[in-house]
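Section 4.2 – Deliverable D4.2 (structural model, holo form)

The reporting period included a commitment to supply a predicted holo structure for the target in complex with adenosine monophosphate. Inputs used:
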Amino acid sequence: MDFRRLETAPLSGKTALVRVDFNVPRREDGSISDDTRIQAALPTIRAIRNAGGKVVLLSHFGRPKGEVKSELSLNFLIPTLQEHLGESIGFTDGFDPSAITENITLIENTRFQPGETKSDEALGKQWAALGDIFVQDAFSASHRNHVSSAGLAAFMPAYAGLSMERELDHLAQALENPKRPVLGVVGGAKVSTKIDLLSNLVRKLDMLAIGGGMANTFLAAQGYDVGNSLCEHDLKDTALKIIDAADKADCKILLPVDVVAATEFAAHAPHRVCALDQVAPHEMILDAGPDTVTQLLDAIDAAKTLIWNGPLGAFEITPFDTSTVEAAQYAARRVKKNGLIAVAGGGDTVAALKHASAADDFTFISTAGGAFLEWMEGKALPGVEILKTGVS
Ligand code: AMP
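Output (structure tokens):
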């Protein structure tokens, strides 16, 4: 994918407005429980500083809806940033360039500004006056057409930060220009949240394995009685249309061939492996069965590229994590031993792969939620599109 990269940006003596994602999870006492997003922003900040540039950081935090809410202020980040970057960090909630006295300055929560989510040009001009170039380093916010994630590009040249570059390069490797065959694994609770995603993927993949609760809707559409399982019966026609589209696009659909059925949604609930036509009315399907796992491992063997979103069963409750864990661990081994390119992301996927101790071995795991899903749906992301204009 061609886009403007940080390496080509003029940095020496310039001030870069850098969009980062500091929307970090916090514990009740206010401490940061997972600093992955802060870590992700550091290479770009350091690169700009090393090249002799100044940095002005922009991020949203929570959903203040255009109002100043002290509990959603970003000032809690100052000590952490100072510790990581070894410099004094400035902080301002205004637009006055003379308030930018430090080499690195954090701007207060972008969503305190009512114009942020409304593509407000006046706000864009006010922020743009604080710097010379715009560096978009928050892929996770790139699906939003907000001033700080896309709109600023109207007023200053825009470049991808290093974290954004890494993300875009890996995503392109998985869907735009992949080594074939490409296998998609899509699981999760419901079809309704993933119709666009499935419809896009069947046009691009060679094989698509559908698992988790959403597979139940496909099984029901094929005439199986799924008993008390999570199932969107009103979407059976949609499921058949997706199968039909896959057929036309030469994408092989892999559905469960056996299942693990239980009588309640609870850890260690009584359960049994059964054939698709043997689920009793009071039972619910909570995981894929062993034959399905074998089918999936064969597909992983055949694939050169794997793209994964969503768990294959109710992975939070043992033993219904079995198929997710086995398939994830197998994929991780294929990455290490056979050069499989395995990319995953979105929603519960990161948690599921971490639970399987497979996350570290995947080629790339996107920590973006909504943006990753919209990218899988084939949608143009405003915060990425601005990096492409004018690039040949
Ligand atoms: P999603 O956010 O759409 O990726 O869905 C993730 C959720 O789907 C997880 O909380 C899983 O427990 C749930 N899930 C996966 N398979 C099943 C299933 N067969 N029945 C009920 N819930 C499931």
